[in-house]
Amino acid sequence: MTDIIPHIVLDRGQAPKHCIIWLHGLGADGEDFVGVAEQLHLPIAMRYIFPHAPKHPVTINGGFVMRSWYDIADIDIAAKQDAAGIYASQAEIEKFITQEKARGIPEENIFIAGFSQGGAIALHTGLRHPAKLGGILALSTYLPLADTLSQEVSLSAKKTPIFFAHGRHDPVVPYPLGKMSADKLQQHGYLIDWHEYPMPHAVVEQEIADIERWLSLQIV
Question: Which of 35, 52, 137, 193 is least surrounded, with the fewest CB atoms within 10 Å of its CB?
């Protein structure tokens, strides 16, 4: 697809039939989680795709232009949400799913992972995708546009398992917001596997080990 956004591809193993589309956080780029993927030792070949978010001015950062999946207007990240930006990023991630399907990877073998703002897009996209995916990894993040989910949700997506992880000392995406997001999804019948860690806005070794274990269970 010629209009797909710039990205990094890392194939671990020969002829992978599974794929993880991994979304970075605000101001980072696709390189951010390549090292984490390289630490994962899975029992099958896996293709990792790390998109670079487009560059946009970010209101909360004084309009400074940086890679972002959507604008953030307020320190309260769940307020004044940039719906247009969120839906635009959803459309970009759907292009990757379409691409991987065309390359022979079935939707049930495609995962969407994301950290912070990237995790919000992973949740938003995966829960609205019209078919069950392999899983969603929501790391140090929250559920965006929660009020629209019930009207836009795919019933098939309710079968998509979700690994939800958060730091108890997160100053960027507050722990209560992450936990409330996970609890809301669980109350509505989503398959949530919740993990919390004594960390700030970060990824720690125990979390990586838990991700590896969870992924291994999904792909057997």
Answer: 35
